[in-house]
Request: fold
Amino acid sequence: MKRIVAIVVGFFLVAQSTVGLAKSDESTLEQIGLGTGSVVGSVIYFPLKTVFCVLGGVGSIYTRIFVGPKSTHELVSTTCRGTWSITPDNLRGNESVSFVGDVPPYGPDVPDVDDSNWQ
Reply:
């Protein structure tokens, strides 16, 4: 089962990298190198990002209990947003890799701990 999952993920990463490679003016060897680097980089990067996100999710439980929903929102956003795979554009330097994600605005429909109307 693990082997099948690894093969499917590998094919997904190769397919993702070849779409970006098809529209470039680079040589075939450069495209192969960037595609291979993208797959190898993603195979190493994705598990690290997954562990970071899971730890952020576990930490958000305690943050929710002791601090409140706004801090929980910030913790989950920073750990689970951002770049999840390495693409050829990342390797070319056209796009940056963001291990820590940006925090979107905190929604008005979620009450804040400091709000006096919160029950």
About this structure: Residues 14 and 85 are 12 Å apart (CA to CA). The mean pLDDT is 78. The chain has one domain: 2-92.
